[in-house]
Amino acid sequence: MTSGTDRDASLADVGEFGLIGRISEIVAATAPGEDVLVGPGDDAAVLRVRKGHVVVSTDVMVEGRHFRRDWADAADVGARAAAQNLSDINAMGGRAQWLTVGLAAPADLPAQWALDFTRGFAEECAKVGAGLVGGDVSRADQVVVSVTAIGACTVSPVLRSGAAPGDVVAICGRQGWAAGGLAVLGRGFRSPRVLVEAYRRPEPPYDAGVVAAEAGATAMVDISDGLLAEAGHVAEASGVSIDVATASFEVPEPLLAVGQATGADPLRFILAGGDDHALLATFPADVALPDGWTRIGTVGAAPAEGAPRVTVDGASYDGPTGWSHF
Amino acid sequence: MTSGTDRDASLADVGEFGLIGRISEIVAATAPGEDVLVGPGDDAAVLRVRKGHVVVSTDVMVEGRHFRRDWADAADVGARAAAQNLSDINAMGGRAQWLTVGLAAPADLPAQWALDFTRGFAEECAKVGAGLVGGDVSRADQVVVSVTAIGACTVSPVLRSGAAPGDVVAICGRQGWAAGGLAVLGRGFRSPRVLVEAYRRPEPPYDAGVVAAEAGATAMVDISDGLLAEAGHVAEASGVSIDVATASFEVPEPLLAVGQATGADPLRFILAGGDDHALLATFPADVALPDGWTRIGTVGAAPAEGAPRVTVDGASYDGPTGWSHF
Known about the structure:
Chains A, B: Pfam families: AIRS, AIRS_C. The structure is a homodimer. Chain A is of the alpha+beta class. The first copy, chain A, is about 35% helix and about 25% strand. A 6-stranded mixed sheet of chain A has the order 8-10-7-11-9-12, sandwiched between helices. In chain A, helix 4 links the parallel strand 4 and strand 5. The radius of gyration of chain A is 20 Å and the shape is globular. Strand 3 (about 55-60) of chain A pairs antiparallel with strand 2 of chain B, so a sheet runs across the interface.
């Protein structure tokens, strides 16, 4: 893919095996991931598992729904696709090691897009020492990316179901920035640039999951679909209620600016935004929160019949809480 | 999903979490798979790995390309999606244990289709004691299914690259039946029924991979894209040539009938057909082939410059050899 002509080649031009061959070169040139005995190219990858437990997660991204090719370049989309799966492993208190990608795409998609996507994907994986070990490509009407991440836990995985009344709720990582960036892009703007970049290249706190698990987190989730929505998942899985205190959040200046420009309450980006992949966890009240974690609420008993699982400043919240995939 | 009204509900009607909840019920009611500590519903599944090596494979199926909803019911499509991934693990000499599914689908897809798909998928997994442990759903313009299978090998995995000159080439399982069924459906017919059923519900020889590995197979692949195409993959990965002897094949009566009706050489279904997921392997010449395996050719030295990797009856073959995904 070095000549000008090659750069214009479509997937149909290079063909399935041409594409796979070029993807394999990119993968071979980046971090292979530890303990990969056989990488892409055979019927299956062969991996050496050192620990007794593995954690596995799958996420789907669809063009026009989770990304737009005119809003982010292919490497950014690749990095985001990796990030959201690496983040799921992070949220278990684990460390991702190996990923596979199922890519469906139109025949007229520039092959360079798929290669740049792969490069961005592999770069993001390399941040945690993980590698792309396999996948499949097929023709479809729109780009659909399905990523599976496999990781290892050195401590017991932290589930959604362990929160107990009296625990504190805390988050780690930027929250609301990506949602602010998405709002900016949706209005046809490109600034504040820091928010647009936050949307294009999230920076999940990849080291925070293991540290939280070791510190004694009782429940943990990554905020991919909205802070209140994810708090609701933890509350429901744990059979508790959660109250979020808005005074906990310092609304960053760029979000204030977007709020002013769009007439939206900037706090809504924080409460309902997802794509930053911050972590939300609960800790026993006597645990000193690890560095980087901020207390944002408390865990209460199961709500009364008909009462909400999640409240904001002690009251029902009637704004959007997150993202629905249908 | 028991009332008539519910059966007509779309994915948009039931919503993402409604769909996931119902899928989880189906998964819980079928074989969970061994060593699943945490199944669907958290950020990741948690699995106990008993052996030191795991094998991982991902395959994509796209509506209109790999299946049509009017040619096979949802449970059949689900079974096929599982089968092609279970077969990849089989082709390594391994046994599949855990699978995840990324499902992208239009909002107006009947939710019942997704549930029946899941049921067929889980039933196929149960044939080998594997379980569905996670996944994701999202909205898209067409149905795209990406499946990842994770398995274990008790012997060294059999790669594509181990064939040596002098080895014999053998296959195990029905071959050409599904391609015949597809040709029938493509002409608007529904018989011979045995071929249409072979296309809708392949019956891969799931026990054959481990047995071949234990018997000393030097290379192995599952025939998902066409016998000659897959033989070519083995020949290229191994740096050898392969000659296939057509006299090895007994063309079954239903394929003869379809050949007569369509004017096609029925041997082409066998040489270029894929979806049966038969296994192709090479064995040292002094190995007695395990039960169910049929010798179909021989491995030779690397071909001369410009000569084909794979020949049929000692000569170049100019018919289709398999399936291209772009």
